[in-house]
Each structure stands twice: as structure tokens, then as C-alpha cells.
Design brief:
Blueprint lengths: L7 H14 L6 H12 L14 E3 L9 E3 L21 H12 L1
Parallel strand pairs: 1-2
Amino acid sequence: MQMLYPTGEKADAELKSFIDSDIVDSDANDVLYAFDASRDYDPSGKLDQIKAVVMWEEQIRKIKHGRFVLLPISDVTRGHGSNSYPPAWKQYLAELMNEIEH
């Protein structure tokens, strides 16, 4: 984000835009519920039962067809926002889809 908003003015403008467009339509109770639900969510006990080919993080070794990918910092990564920016990971998805087809 520092590359996208290198000045305080640009960062402030983006934050204002986010608040005006995204947060204004959010229900406070829904946001609290979502955060609370994620506090103790732990799927690790059943990861070995996943049969689909997936890309995931730390616990990936427990999934039969899983693969861990660490994205190197680059011009296309966006920190925590990289997961919603396809140019950062599309090559890995293409590899995954190619494996599924063969």
C-alpha cells in the first residue's frame, strides 16, 4: 500500500474513500460477529479429509493435494491485500488448474 499511497494525502484520501463506500454500508453487529467468529476458528483437525486440490498456508502439508506458496514482495503484491489482487498469484492458480486438467 505504501507504493499505491506514498503520501499522507493519498493515504488519507484512500481511507476516506474506503469509509465512504465500504464501511458506510456495513452493519456494526455483522462486523463484530465476523471478528468474534474468527477468534477461535480452527479447521486443522479435519484438514487431512480435504480431497480438493487447493492453495493454502501453514497447515497445507496436512492436505493431500495442497501446496504452500509464499509470494515474494514485488510490484504486484499488496501485503495482506495480495489475496484479492490476482496479478500477485495468477501464475500459481494457472499451475494449479493445469495440474487438475492433467
